[in-house]
Specification:
This protein has about 450 residues and is mainly beta. Helix content is about 15%, strand content about 40%.
Length: about 450
């Protein structure tokens, strides 16, 4: 008797026990590699052959299998119900080369976090998103600026006393080269047994990052945007010129030395009748804004049919610094960070047994800062906080920059009128994976 193997399209909706739609359920024919997922409404469409078994998996719900013998056999009028797990079982852990294994298949300790947790908080980099989410991984940030293009100089990652090796889709790469929106999961293998594939460096452990994999389904587009305002938590309040003069005189007097400022100095500091010889300049107010803006945007596109599936993520992030600028300048002297990122993956089913996967990651990063000597972020802040209000005026009567033998670098000239330093970095990383199933030739 001839068997009907004509492909049918099955459309269904997956709900939980409270009739709420379940998104992110992975649907595939048992034993196959091609998958699709439910959308935000819990709806999916999938082609199947008569007699095939469809599997439904979700980390928060019990595994389920459905055998469909007829196109209209869509349980309860196209509705499928999943039961939520009371106790979470072993989650799959991604291996160093993208293979999925049960957590207990690893000899040593491992910990995994998934994309839903990574995107809960507002983070501009994957390193910030990982903080506090992976057991055994300690992250500290060296500085608040983003003037470096490597996680090695901006962040410190530590696992059991060692800096772990970062592996993205089976290749060692810079952790900051990927957008958090493009990540499916991050696993940390915390000891030598779990990271034996690193060879001599296995004692350092491994941070394994897996990017999102394309799935079958209709064209899907999502756009997310974030806009925020950054501000200084607390700024030290400087002494006024008269207060500084009084405190210095008191310190000299306590040491048995002659006081430096007289009564006339106090009077001029208070009434500001001689601002050039007796200035009272609050350098924080002169150079720093109270707030700075930050914004991020992500555009994700996915879809595909039986032969090919694709996933593309475009990301943009911008952060402004707190330093003031002069509108007269034709250039920007503020600290600024701007980044464009592209992540893409295409899966192609060349034949039933032969599949190809192409992955590309690209990053364009631009940074800006003042161009004067000693204009590093920490250098300028230290100078602002250690320069007294009566040190020198911003400008002299002839409109030249103020200063003296003790303070010979004018802070305003350093930050706003000494040019700028721009740094551009670009990198493109690509991988191609070819997989052939030899089960028809050699079993096992």
């Amino acid at each position: 008797m001839a068997q009907d193997t004509e492909a049918k399209t099955y459309t269904g909706r997956i709900l939980d026990q409270a009739n709420n739609p379940v998104s992110g359920v992975v649907i595939k024919i048992k034993g196959a590699t091609t998958t699709t997922q439910t959308n935000a409404e819990g709806i999916f469409s999938y082609e199947y052959e008569k007699g095939k078994i469809i599997t439904l998996t979700h980390p928060d719900f019990l595994y389920k299998e459905i055998t469909l013998n007829k196109p209209q056999d869509n349980h309860n009028g196209f509705l499928i119900y999943l039961t939520e797990k009371l106790v979470q079982d072993h989650q799959p852990v991604t291996g160093p080369y993208g293979e999925s294994k049960r957590e207990d298949a690893f000899l040593g300790a491992s910990s995994t976090v998934y994309t839903d947790d990574l995107t809960k908080s507002v983070s501009s980099t994957i390193v910030e998103a990982l903080q506090g989410r992976l057991t055994g991984l300690y992250i500290s940030q060296y500085r608040g600026t983003r003037l470096t293009d490597s996680d090695n100089t901006q962040f410190f990652l530590n696992s059991r006393g060692n800096s772990p090796i970062v592996v993205i889709d089976g290749v060692q790469r810079d952790l900051l080269s990927i957008d958090p929106e493009a990540i499916e999961s991050v696993s940390i293998q915390k000891d030598a047994l779990s990271s034996m594939f690193l060879g001599m460096r296995s004692s350092r452990g491994a941070l394994i990052v897996t990017t999102k994999n394309p799935s079958r389904g209709a064209f899907h587009l999502s756009l997310t945007g974030q806009f925020g305002v950054q501000s200084v938590i607390k700024k030290p309040k400087p002494l006024s010129a008269s207060q500084y003069a009084y405190m210095l005189n008191e310190a000299l007097s306590n040491d048995g030395k002659e006081i430096f400022y007289g009564y006339d100095d106090y009077a001029k500091y208070l009434d500001q009748t001689s601002p050039y010889t007796h200035p009272n300049v609050n350098w924080q107010d002169e150079l720093l804004n109270d707030q700075a803006t930050t914004q991020s945007y992500n555009l994700n596109v996915s879809g595909g049919e039986k032969v090919a599936q694709y996933y593309i993520s475009l990301g943009y992030h911008n952060e402004d610094g707190l330093f003031k600028t002069d509108p007269v300048n034709s250039y920007n002297t503020n600290f600024q960070f701007e980044r464009y990122m592209i992540s893409s993956k295409v899966n192609i089913n060349v034949t039933e047994d032969f599949t190809a996967s192409l992955t590309a990651l690209a990053r364009l990063q631009e940074t800006n800062q003042p161009g004067g000597t000693g204009t590093g972020y920490s250098d300028l802040l230290n100078a602002i906080y250690t320069t007294p209000n009566n040190a020198y005026p911003v400008r002299n009567p002839n409109d030249s920059w103020g200063g003296n033998l003790t303070f010979n670098n004018n802070l305003m000239a350093q930050t706003i009128h000494s040019g700028y330093i721009a740094d551009n970095s670009r990198d493109i990383l690509g991988t191609m994976n070819l997989k052939y199933d030899f089960n028809k030739v050699v079993k096992g």
